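Internal ticket #5521
Category: modeling
Description: The requester needs a full-assembly model to guide mutagenesis choices. All entity lines are attached below as received. Residue total reported by intake: 418.
Assigned to: D.W.
Attached entities:
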Amino acid sequence: MASETPQRNIVIIGGGIIGCTTAYFLTRHPSYSPQRHNITILESQSIASGASGKAGGLLALWAYPSNIVPLSYKLHAELAKEHDGANRWGYRAVHCGSLSARGRLHEPTDTKGGEAAEGKGEEWQKLPKTDPNAKAKMAAKGIPKDLDWFDADAVTGYSEMGDPRTTAQVHPYLFTTSMADLAVEAGAKVILGSATAIDYTGPHGVKAVTYEDKETKKIHTLPASDVILAAGPWTSHIFPEAPIDAMRAHSVVVQADVSPYAIFSEIDLPRDFGRKGGGDVRVRRHGKTVSPEMYARPDGTVYACGEGDHLVPLPKSSDLVQCDPDRCQDIIDYVSSISTPLRQGAILARQACYLPSVSTGGGPLIGETGIRGLLLATGHTCWGIQNSCATGKLMSEFVFEGKAKSANVASLDPRRFL
Ligand SMILES: Cc1cc2nc3c(=O)[nH]c(=O)nc-3n(C[C@H](O)[C@H](O)[C@H](O)COP(=O)(O)OP(=O)(O)OC[C@H]3O[C@@H](n4cnc5c(N)ncnc54)[C@H](O)[C@@H]3O)c2cc1C
């Protein structure tokens, strides 16, 4: 790396969680000097406009890859302590469990979105929490006492996957934007514009990044001594050699103030499953098993996401991502089929985003590319929130020390994949 040059222009392409934690850790590195080091996050649309603003936010010591997970999990806890992450980005330890259930067909409680379904359907008083019979049924199935937001008749089994020592959570949008803000407070800059090319024809490798300004649409050139490409699923649009694939996934956020659990579910749907009545004739035959994930959040909401699809290719930018309302409604129907609070809660968000993965398997890709000054930090699949802190820390070491020190990431060396 160009550590001998006093002036460094470090450009991070992508203002998702990976780009923003990288900026944060660069500004916290002992060698960082705001006088000598210009750090720029170049983000095409807005900070956290991709998966980083629409993910679940689970952190787990049993995530993968094992060479960076413990470091990242520990750094999440340290950052939360240092910056009041509990209040600022909803950091907290949670239980995590796997729940099996039999879904039931219910009348729709929210077909238009937005409005709460209070007064319609079943009442809160019928919740298992307040019904002694239901409580006894839940206890007989091994369900923890405080996991009281699923219907007793629907649940068929539960097993613990993590306890508050091994699983935690953040609100990914709030965490990512906080990382960007903290980096900016320490001297980093954010530019809204889309990188169109990386020029690495200089005598010392990387020379500049050209981008189209988001507002003016004018093309500009940013001088660069170091470029960290952290554009998630868009990485191969900028650097086609990077073997990064994109898979679309939908999610919803439901208003429901429930106990702190992250739930991986397996729901057997009845053959005639869907929504009836209310003028809605969307009744479908399922008879299959679906597996939405549900994460209770400290802000009185539950985030739920469904399975991924490859039906719509990755668009040019995050603002053009197509959200299919039917896919979101599926998730709402699935989780509503086993939980009264989720059935009754207002739907606060219906959204879609793209997951970045390494097409050959493995990853993420963290480190040098073989082109001097060009580093990759991408392909984090479904653990990018969990592994963001370790990635950011390691990138700061690559830039300022020329190699990773906090973890052995030889198996994630991009040169093995390019
Ligand atoms: C439904 C779902 C649930 C998830 N849940 C979890 C979870 O619970 N825990 C967990 O650890 N992980 C989870 N993940 C995974 C996690 O969201 C991703 O791994 C992570 O967000 C990837 O971050 P990123 O910064 O690499 O990419 P992104 O968030 O996609 O950010 C890339 C950024 O680059 C910008 N960009 C693109 N092209 C350009 C360009 N040319 N110039 C400038 N900027 C550009 C984009 O606008 C975007 O903001 C989940 C993912 C999905 C889809």
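Resolution: model delivered.
Comment from assignee: The radius of gyration is 23 Å.
Ticket closed.
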